[in-house]
Amino acid sequence: NNLASVYRDLGDYAKALEYYQKDLAICERVFGSEHPSTGTSYNNLADVYRALGDYAKALEYSQKSLAICERVFGTEHPSTGTCYNNLASVYRDLGDYAKALEYYQKAVSVKEKVLGTKHPKTAVFYSNLAGVYQALGDYAKAGKFYKDALAVFQAKLGLQHPNTTYVQDQIEALKGQDLF
Fold first, then answer.
1. Distance between CA atoms of 139 and 171, rounded to whole angstroms?
2. Own/partner pairs for 171-175, CB < 8 Å, 24+ apart?
């Protein structure tokens, strides 16, 4: 798993895929198909398939990971919230904004309950949700969630952090086009 993560970070997705598949085989053999570690393996494979543009495989593995999270942890656990977010990202990449919105909203709800509204991880999910609203043309909601994310990022991560500057750029793009 760790070696696969290094290859993924280096952009060598073929090697990452090879080692994540080995990791999954071990997890399934040792822990079974319903264990959280197996779910993490599914999620990691989904991430690589998504990077490769194989959204059908990314969707399949994201759904498997989410199913394990919901069964093992319930629907209001931080890990489940992350699974909702990851599945939403695949739907966004597929252009299924209704499904992306549904799962991003679930992810935000979990993070707000567990971490609160002023946590950087919650703010990342606000930004993701804003991006879908922007794609759907609902610029007022996109602006609201970008502003919520920006306030948290500025307070917790500082003005120069990449998350802060990314959200600032998104807000400026919306303002520049008089979209909200």
1. 10
2. 171/143, 171/146, 171/147, 174/134, 174/139, 174/142, 174/143, 174/146
User: Considering Cα of 57, then 62, then 65, then 67, what sign does the dihedral take?
Assistant: negative
What's this model's pTM, rounded to 2 decimal places? 0.92
What span, in angstroms and rounded, lies between the C-alpha atoms of 78 and 97?
23
Most distant pair of Cα atoms in the chain: their distance: 56
Of the candidates 26, 52, 133, the one whose C-alpha atom is nearest the C-alpha of residue 88 is: 133
Show pLDDT as tens, one digit a residue, over the chain (180 residues): 999 999 999 999 999 999 999 999 999 999 999 999 999 999 999 999 999 999 999 999 999 999 999 999 999 999 999 999 999 999 999 999 999 999 999 999 999 999 999 999 999 999 999 999 999 999 999 999 999 999 999 999 999 999 999 999 999 999 877 776
Residues near 11 by beta carbon (within 8 Å), at least 6 away in sequence: none
Token representation of residue 15: 């090697």
